[in-house]
Amino acid sequence: MNFDFSDDQKFLKSEVRKFLEANAPTRRVRQVLDDKARLFDQPLWRAVAEQGWLGAAIPEQFGGLGLGHLELCVMAEEIGRAVAPIPFASTVYFLAEAIQLAGDDRQKAEILPKIAAGEVIGAVATSEGPGVLTPVSVQTSVTGGKLTGVKIPVTDGDIADLCLVLAKENGQPGLFLVDLNGEGVTREAVTTLDPTRDAAKLTFEGASAQRLGAAGEGFVLIEQVFDRAAVLLAFEQCGGADKCLEMAKAYALERYAFGRIIASYQAIKHKLADMYIKNELARSNAYYGAWALNTNAPEMPVAASAARIAASEAFWFASKENIQTHGGIGFTWEMDCHLYYRRSRQLSLVAGAPRVWKERLVSHLERRNAA
Amino acid sequence: MDFNDTPEEAAYRGQVRAWLEVNAPKRAVGDDLERGGDSMPPSKAWQAKKAAAGYAQITWPKEWGGQGGNPIQQVIFNQEEAKHPIPPNPFQISLGICVPTVATFADDATKARFVGPALRGEEIWCQLFSEPSGGSDLAAARTKAVPAPDGSGDWLISGQKVWTTGAHFSDFGIVVCRTNPGAPKHKGLTMFWVDMHDPGIEVKPIHQMSGGPGFNEVFFTDVRVKDSQRLGAVDDGWKVSLVTLMNERLAVGGASGAGWREFIEAARTVPGLDGGPALKDQALREKLADWYVHAEGLKHTRNRTMTALSRGQTPGPESSIGKIVSALQMQDLGNTAIEMLDQYGIINDPELAPLHAAFHTSLMFAPGMRIAGGTDEILKNIIAERVLGLPGDIRVDKDVPFKDMPTGR
User: Is ipTM strictly over 0.90?
Assistant: First the structure.
């Protein structure tokens, strides 16, 4: 049994943590939070690119480090822990993964090296309005290589160069790559619960679109991309959830009420124990997702769903109960608690809400366990 | 990251498989039991066979009849053994908890007398700790041991223990007694081993709310024990019981019973809100997803623990979440399945209820699971204190002589 990360991967994780503690403390995150004009932490993004993280899981022939997805998982956990204000997920988990999954040789050779070098920021555009996206509800369409329609919200839509867009072509869903710096693209900022991550409304009026993967396969492909991203997002969520538990514990050990530190009250002890339980369940599910991702296992849809559901629940619970443990001070802008509360919402919604994943999971189980 | 054995583990698994193939029972004892048979003879026969081959307690040293093996080898044996129709194992408390305590604190002659018969399943031990006045608060034990008035140095034990698993078929037991009521509760306890066949010991089965037996009340009336039956120093029994409880740590308990697979099976055929299968009801589907995720979380947490063992490391504290999650889930899943049946759900006749009333059995057994081996609340305290490093509860009784402690029900 070897169901854990290797010593090398753990060493990488500690190096990533050290780097982010030095380069992305929460006062840096707050510069993005407090300044509407600052859409992400550009110096941090450049530094991350110089470290080679953007190409960690990209093969060396395409300019990456050629490490595996397990290495990407440990990085993701640290990025989540740091609530880093950079378009890492959009670029690496969604765009790079989609191109590796469905891109042809030309697309891989053209785009992957630019991602690895930090020259291209990615985004993924599926949502068009309130409610669950289905193959039927997609309105955006491509005719003769030109894209028309509206996508909202698109995480990192203001800063991305290349966007993965789900749209219909000849009535069938397809995945398309759109240069957001080209003609026919209008970007408008939208405010979200998590201002440390950028989001936009994208309006396409005849923007050039090249198809990624086979015609009519868009929905299948985007589900595969989301599965892969879900595992990596789950590690970000685990990192955030563990940080919340640490914050709550540290505060409970120094805050006095009624003549005792509040960590000595069972109401607080049991709350923190509940956080620990959820965090460990999330971690174990995320590990299984990591294994499935790294080995391209057929269990991937189920493993990814379980990882996402458990991690969404853990981060949500830890982020809200961390505020509760802090009491009034936790409700202030100056305390970092809300950064995690906000990020927990961003991460739970960005690739579809937990209830959508629960439905996917049960559909798979239903079929798998059919008599 | 993978789920494969190391070459050494694979070799050991091969050896175990080959041995089991030849030696394991070929037929389950279940049918005999339903006809009123006794599972003890086949259990003891299987235990003796394992002991003779060194598989009864793989991690025990060779001089005790073990293999001097590592914990992962025991896990591998358990996995492979479970693939055969083996009889129930009534020896876990003997070998996992009681005998290691005796072996740690008794003299060589006592050790030599007891280890072999227990290993071979010829003699069974029980653990006499819980009392009516102290479940979670083990150190509140009131069963007293007083020096015999004849000056022989013997002790006389009187009092009552409760929730003693297997007392009705046990030959010996370890019992924690109050020897100094004038000292604070942790400082006045002493541990002894006793012969359960002593005429001063009366064992009465507890009628559980779930209907089943298995636990007992044990009454002690002037049970005379030699001072040589004392384990550890006089008034030092708390320290001895901590060693005992530490031996429980690898007994990774978890509730089982009907799970998400059984729920899916039942929900396929039970009519739901719109007349279609209940499996299409969205509220049930969301719960199903949660149960699956929890069950998988526990499964892979066990895999993480095994990995640590496999790498020769001490497992992390994550294994402490097992029982608390599984017992709560057993209750929730059982109840949700029953509510799914609507008015019909009240029927627990195995002939009428789905899956032979497996969900009803879970529902009625789950309250016990949430209490046994550490209540949900005690386990959360343990996680908070030992895993997270939060302070212990304020002990108002810490320095109070035991005899002056307030008592309620």
Answer: yes
Cβ <8 Å between B296 and A369 = no
Range in B32-41, B76-85, B205-214, B335-344 with the lowest mean pLDDT:
B32-41
Residues B121-149: what's their mean pLDDT? 93
Residue A350 contacts residue B273 (beta carbons within 8 Å):
no
Q: Determine the distance in angstroms separating the CA of B136 from the nearest CA of chain A, rounded to an integer.
A: 15
Structural domains of chain B, ranges and CATH numbers in brackets: 7-89 (1.10.540.10), 125-246 (2.40.110.10), 260-372 (1.20.140.10)
Q: Per-residue DSSP letters for A106-161?
A: HHHHHHHHHHHHT---EEEE---SSS---TTT---EEETTEEEEEEEEEETTTT-S
Distance CA A366, CA B149 (A): 71
- What pLDDT shows up at residue B252? 42
pLDDT at residue A204, rounded to an integer: 98
Q: Is the per-residue pLDDT at B119 higher than 50?
A: yes
pLDDT surpasses 60 at B286: yes
CB of A269 within 8 Å of any CB in chain B? yes
How is residue B324 written in tokens? Answer: 């608390």
Burial of residue B17 (number of CB atoms within 10 Å: 0-12, 13-18, 19+): middle
Query: What domains can be seen in chain A, in order of their start residue?
Result: 7-119 (1.10.540.10), 123-215 (2.40.110.10), 219-368 (1.20.140.10)
Beta bridge partners, B401, equal B184
Check CB contact under 8 Å for A287 and B300. yes
Collapsing DSSP to helix, strand or coil, A166 comes out as strand
B381:A306 CB<8 A: no
What string of DSSP letters covers B132-146? Answer: TTBSS-GGG---EEE
Q: Is A368 on the interface with B (CB under 8 A)?
A: no
Q: In chain A, whose CA is at the least distance from the CA of B320?
A: A277
- Nearest-CA distance B6 → chain A (Å): 7
What tens digit of pLDDT does each residue of A17-30 get? 999 999 999 999 99
Please tell me the distance from the alpha carbon of residue B167 to that of residue B160, in angstroms, as a whole number: 13
The chain A residue lying nearest B322, using CA atoms, is: A277
Q: What pLDDT is recorded for position B35?
A: 56
Q: Check A273 against B3: CB less than 8 A apart.
A: no
Looking at every residue in chain B, the average pLDDT score rounds to 91
State the Cα–Cα distance between residues A164 and B383, nearest whole angstrom. 44
Task: Please name the member of B4, B286, B394 whose beta carbon is closest to the beta carbon of A355.
Answer: B286
Query: Which residues does chain A have with pLDDT short of 70?
Result: 371
Give the residue on B whose Cα is nearest the Cα of A293.
Answer: B1
The interface residues of chain A toward chain B in range 202-241, judged by CB-CB distance below 8 A, are: none
